[in-house]
């Protein structure tokens, strides 16, 4: 299933989405260059989110040496940076496709600033959740999956029954259909089983290690729905 558009008329250009898509593509091309030169593994292991490194630094800072908070601060940069790294062609294509189809309507509804806050905030908080859930994990976690899940959650809160123009690939034939938006709540999780397709060579990660765990993404969905409810409520009060 490939979502194409929701046909909801936009009152303003999705400027933030343009920037996010451009930045993600540019960084992925840089990753591809590093893979060709054999430097990608070191790059991802330096800037990807590795829960064990952060949890270990926090434990040391609390129990042994307060100066270790400097290390915690340095490692915490990966909470932000990991959102802009991807482990495969299928992962970045899937994420950016969902960002475009569902994100442009959300940005149009809540505004550029709030949309960016939702995207970055959800990405960081789902990453923190991953550290709490798997504090000993030593495999780098990368991808905007948590942030995209939040965008999808925000969209579904407001437009659960809107029809999404969809293409169903059947061998070499592409069948156009319309699917209700809530269908993509389930498809979002199913499609990630295929995120290993076109994987970059990032040792020691496995096929699915480039995406945040499903529990983290479920948190993202709930955050997006809650954020949309708050945004709509505050907007109605101002009106």
Helix-strand makeup class: mainly alpha
Q: Tell me the major beta sheet.
A: 3 strands, antiparallel
Radius of gyration: 19 Å
Give the overall shape, derived from the CA principal axes. globular
Elements, N to C (H/E): EHHHHHHHHEEHH
Q: What level of helicity do the residues show?
A: 55-70%
**Distance separating the two termini:** 39 Å
Which residue ranges are poorly predicted, with pLDDT under 50 across at least 5 consecutive positions? Answer: 205-212
Number of helices: 10
Task: Give an account of the 3D structure.
The chain is mainly alpha-helical and 239 residues long. Helix content is 62%, strand content 8%. It has 10 helices and 3 strands. A 3-stranded antiparallel sheet has the order 1-2-3. Helix 3 (51-63) runs antiparallel to helix 4 and helix 7 (112-133) packs antiparallel against helix 10 (214-238). Residues 205-212 have low confidence and may be disordered.
């Amino acid at each position: 299933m490939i979502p194409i558009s929701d046909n909801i008329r936009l009152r303003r250009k999705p400027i933030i989405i343009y920037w996010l898509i451009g930045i993600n593509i540019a960084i992925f091309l840089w990753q591809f260059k590093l893979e060709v030169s054999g430097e990608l593994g070191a790059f991802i292991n330096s800037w990807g989110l590795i829960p064990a490194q952060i949890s270990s630094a926090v434990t040391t800072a609390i129990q042994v040496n307060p100066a270790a908070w400097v290390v915690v601060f340095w490692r915490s940069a990966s909470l932000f940076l990991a959102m802009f790294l991807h482990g495969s062609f299928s992962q970045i294509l899937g994420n950016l496709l969902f960002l475009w189809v569902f994100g442009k309507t959300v940005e149009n509804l809540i505004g550029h600033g709030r949309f960016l806050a939702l995207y970055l905030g959800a990405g960081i908080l789902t990453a923190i959740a991953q550290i709490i859930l798997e504090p000993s994990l030593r495999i780098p976690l990368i991808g905007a999956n948590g942030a995209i899940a939040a965008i999808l959650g925000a969209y579904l809160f407001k437009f659960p029954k809107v029809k999404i123009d969809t293409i169903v690939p059947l061998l070499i034939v592409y069948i156009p259909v319309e699917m209700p938006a809530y269908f993509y709540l389930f498809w979002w999780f199913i499609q990630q089983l295929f995120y290993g397709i076109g994987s970059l060579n990032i040792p020691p990660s496995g096929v699915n290690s480039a995406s945040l765990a499903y529990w983290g993404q479920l948190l993202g969905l709930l955050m997006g729905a809650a954020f949309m409810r708050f945004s709509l409520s505050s907007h109605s009060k101002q009106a």
